[in-house]
Amino acid sequence: MIYALITLGVFLLMECVTWLTHKFVMHGFGWYLHADHHQPKYQGIFEKNDAYFIVFAIPSILLFYFGTYTSHTYLFFIGLGILFYGIAYFLVHDVLIHQRFKWFKHTNNRYLKGLRKGHKMHHKHLGKEEGECFGMLFVPLKYFKKPKI
């Protein structure tokens, strides 16, 4: 049970890590890798921004290794929480929001529509300044409200 809680806790903590990384690294000194992601049209299947998947995968892989081959089993489950967040990030960000894969084109779920709206507000800024809504799975409640008619 403790390992499931560790995995869940790390998964939730990764939203904070992602927010901080997105705001201060991707929109800071790491803008070089993230800039093409803010352009209206992708030039190909991959973009430089995809390098951040590798950046986040490395600690997860190392934690799997040290959690498996040492007596510190809990490290494996920390790595698992990071992996699960990476999978959720891929499904939400690349599949649902940016439609890089056409798997969930016609969703009518209120939560998912709110995530899309929040991320759309993030992308209205093409530069690294004046960004908003840096999270992925938790965005401000205002994006979930139905528009007044």
TrEMBL record:
GO molecular-function terms, A-Z: beta-carotene 3-hydroxylase activity
TM spans (from-to): 6-30, 51-68, 74-92
Keyword line: Carotenoid biosynthesis, Membrane, Oxidoreductase, Transmembrane, Transmembrane helix
Biological process annotations from GO: carotene metabolic process; xanthophyll biosynthetic process
Family in the record: Belongs to the sterol desaturase family.
This protein's name: Sterol desaturase family protein
Lineage of origin: Bacteria, Pseudomonadati, Bacteroidota, Flavobacteriia, Flavobacteriales
